[in-house]
Structures are given as structure tokens and as C-alpha cells.
Amino acid sequence: MTPFSYTRFGTAFCTLIISLILTPQPANAQARWLTQKTKGFVSGMSGADVLEGLATAHKFKIEYANEEIKSEAAETLIHGNLNDVPLETTLRLILSGISKQDEIPWTADKTTLHIHDPRESTSITYNISRLRPLITDLDDFQYAIMNSVNAEWNDPQEAPDPESKAGAITSLTADEMTIRQELRTHMMLAEIITTLQSAVGRNSNTIAALADKKISKALEKPHALPAGEITLDELFAKAFTENDIPWFVQANQLNLETPGITVSGKVTIEGTRRPLREIVEPALTGHKLSLDIRRGVLVITTREDLDHHSDFRAYNIEKFLNTTTAEAVVARLEELEGASFSSCEIFGPVLLIDADAATHKVIAAAMAGK
């Protein structure tokens, strides 16, 4: 049997921890330590050293899939200050930044952070019982799940092919879904299920949205940084760390050995009192860097990454369904000026949309009637 591919356009920043895994323990027995607030680490250390420090501070162990992955972690420098950010978010950011090739998948259990090889495949069972309000038909549900990620899948209408390397949904009930896929695909699947679960409670993205709003407000407050020439790393410390703004340099998007795109590059600060954003952004422009707020963290990244980064968000459209259909709502959203989806799937009264930040802003405004 020939595998076929359901394609998403663009690469989402979706290294969400697979804390939903139900193999072999129930979800509430998984990695509760991930909810702890991150204890500070020194910016500029290697990824391996930062992880070891966090493991000691938060009392968990680390297991690497192989020496190659461990070496990548040792060779990549981590620049940022994530003090008091949820530990899950911190680990997601660090592990998304230690490889210039593939996102590094990871899972966690009661005691251990497991750092996997992105090429590994495995079967994982997800608890989807909370998604029952979103499932009108199990067949439609499984196709919507497959359509949401960029991965190869065996046709569910065909008999399973044990020789195929394509993934498959091997078991599906109203309570559980077992999927065989590469671990990097499981990371996206875990994010999708988490996002949909939040949508059921009608509080999708609420916590992250509040944290993002707090950062936006902090960037608009006037400050006067000392005039003179400083490095980008020093600028980030003075502008962000001293103002309690969590920040992180997306290292895998930067060639830190290239002059002009390095955190040791120099910038000149005028010293006039202005909003932080107006002080920092011009300095970054000269180094081909940009600011982006992602799930409660101010991320410093390249313009290219900013243009291509996307993530999943769920939108409850139940209030529109008395007068129209979900398909009609999707059609209207596709016509919005400035909207460009990587994917948009219907889960009952919820739309799961993978798009960049600009598109999500346009959609949110439309949903609010603005």
C-alpha cells in the first residue's frame, strides 16, 4: 500500500511536551514537576549545562536518546532569562533551540526528562475523553487530526501495512486514540489535543494570552537605558531582565558565528527616555533580528523565522452556528484581508487553525466582531 501525505504549509513552533501520554500511566500521574516555576539559570551557558542545572534545581533526571543529541545540546549556547516561567515552557524553548536541523522531541514522566531522536517512531495513546463535545463523527475526527499535521499517514480505509513507514491511527474510541508516528509528529499532535481540550472549557489560550498582554504592556512603558555602546546580550539584560520580562534567543534560527547576527554584537543606545520597544527594535533591525511574543515569553529571532512561525489556536464558533455552518465560517475567514492559514480543521463547534501571529490577530478581531 502506498502511504499518502496530509500537508501543512509552514513549520509551527510546536515543541509542546507530550504530557498527555497515557502509556502506561494515567495522565494525572505524569510529570507534575513541569508546572513548577523555572528557577533562574545563567544566560550564555550550553544547553546541556542549563538542562543539568534545571534537573538539579527541580529534582528530575535527564536521559538522552544518543550521544549525537547530547553533543548538540553541549554545543549550543542558551541566551535568555526564563525565571518564573512554567518549567514546561522553559524546556520546550530550550529543546526547540539546540538543533539546527530537526526539532528535538521530548517526553516526561514522574522523574525523568526523556530527550528523543526526532527520527524515532512509536505508538502513543492519547486520552481524548474531554473532546467528546467536539466529536460528531469518529471518522471525520481522525481525518481532521491527520490533516492538521505535516506527516505521512497510511490510508485508514485500507488494511494496516506492517512494512509501511507511514504513521497510522491504530485505535480510536470516544475516550482514547492510539497513533503510531514519528516523535516529532507526536509533539504536534500533543499540542493539537491540548489546544482542543482548552477550547472545550472555553478558556483556550487564556493563560498564555494574559502573559503575552503583560509583556506587551511592559514593552510600552518608557525607560531610559544608559547611553553608549553595549552588546546585544547586555541590552537584553538591561531592557528585559531588569524589567521582569521573560526573554529567550531562538538560537537555532541564528548563525551565531556570522558577524552581524551574534548576541555579542555591539549596539549604540542614545539614552533618551522612550518605550522599551522603541529602544530595542531599532537596535535589533541592524542585526537582522526581531521581537516576537510567544506563550508568555519575549522571543528574539530572525525576520525569516518571524515570517514563517505559526502555531495552533482553537476558536469556538458555536455562537455562529444557529445561522450558518462551520464551513461557511471558514470560507469567510479565508476571505479576510491579511489572513493566511497553514491549516484549518473543523472539530464540531471549534475551528483549529494553524497560522502566524498576524493571521491569528486578524481572526481574533473578526470573531469579536471588530
Q: Pairing-aware structural class of the strands and helices?
A: alpha+beta
Runs with pLDDT <50, length 5+?
1-29, 255-261
Gross morphology: globular
What is the radius of gyration computed over CA atoms, rounded to a whole number of angstroms?
A: 21 Å
Gap from first CA to last CA: 49 Å
Overall average residue pLDDT? 81
Number of helices in the DSSP assignment: 11
The helix fraction, in percent, is 25-40%
Give the beta-strand count: 22
Give the strand line-up of the largest sheet.
2-20-22-21
Describe, in short, the structure shown.
This protein has 370 residues and is of the alpha+beta class. It contains eleven helices and 22 strands.
Secondary-structure blueprint:
Elements: E1 4-6, E2 11-12, E3 45-46, H1 47-58, E4 61-64, H2 67-75, E5 77-78, E6 80-81, H3 87-96, E7 106-108, E8 112-115, E9 121-127, H4 138-147, E10 151-153, E11 168-172, E12 176-182, H5 183-200, H6 206-220, E13 222-223, E14 228-231, H7 232-239, E15 247-249, E16 266-269, E17 274-275, H8 276-285, E18 289-294, E19 297-302, H9 303-308, E20 309-316, H10 326-334, E21 341-347, E22 350-355, H11 357-367
Helix pairs in contact: 7-8
Give an overview in words:
- This protein has 370 residues and is an alpha+beta fold.
- It has helices at 47-58, 67-75, 87-96, 138-147, 183-200, 206-220, 232-239, 276-285, 303-308, 326-334, 357-367, and strands spanning 4-6, 11-12, 45-46, 61-64, 77-78, 80-81, 106-108, 112-115, 121-127, 151-153, 168-172, 176-182, 222-223, 228-231, 247-249, 266-269, 274-275, 289-294, 297-302, 309-316, 341-347, 350-355.
- It has a four-stranded mixed sheet, with helices on both faces. The protein has a four-stranded mixed sheet with strand order 6-15-19-18. Strands 4-8-7 form a three-stranded mixed sheet.
- A hairpin with a 2-residue loop joins strand 18 and strand 19.
- Helix 7 runs antiparallel to helix 8 (276-285).
- The chain is globular, with a radius of gyration of 21 Å.
- Mean pLDDT is 81; it is low at 1-29 and 255-261.
